[in-house]
Specification:
globular, twelve-stranded antiparallel beta sheet, outer membrane lipoprotein receptor (LolB), chain A, 218 residues, mainly beta
Amino acid sequence: MKFQNPLIGLMLLSGLSACGPTPVRFEPVVDVNWQAQQNLQKQLHSWTISGRISVQTEFEGGQADYSWQQHNLTDYNIRLQAPMGAGTTLISGRKSGVSLKTSSGEELFDTDVDRLMHSINGWPLPVSGLQYWVRGLPAPSSHYEISEWIESGLPGVMLQDGWRIEFKKYKTIGNHHLPGKLFINRLNGDEEVDVRLIIRKWTLDGELNAGINKAQVQ
């Protein structure tokens, strides 16, 4: 039995989903010490984001609503919901590995989430890097380069692991400055992949989150 593509196969009705909630308004971020921000963002171990993700490859594309709940450094749950209730994919990451389930009951497991996504889709999706990029941070396991900065002193474009990550519409929650939108493009390799991640809501949990508990911005 062929396993359903968890992103493109899930998003077949994306053409019907152009209408959605009104975009959030973001307050401008000014004069940020990025080194201090990196240290602060690294303390965010428990958080939730939700919004919409779109993926475009050379031959196919689509979009879905998502919710990502990060419990700690290793444990997370990601829910992908196709437009018009067409289907759901659940991705559960734990220290031992990651499992992926569809609403049809199909399930796969791997110790490496990026390898799992590539084996299913046939093209890469950097889930392991996204855990850091959504916080405006480079992943700690590899070299990175900030190729563009914005006026506030925060990264505008970062290059890492063969990806170009563009950060847009930073929002402020307490003392944290977090991106509200990411454009991610594959820089090398045979697979052409364009990912756009819109973050409509941030929820931060824990005592270290700039003195706020379950602060929500939407």
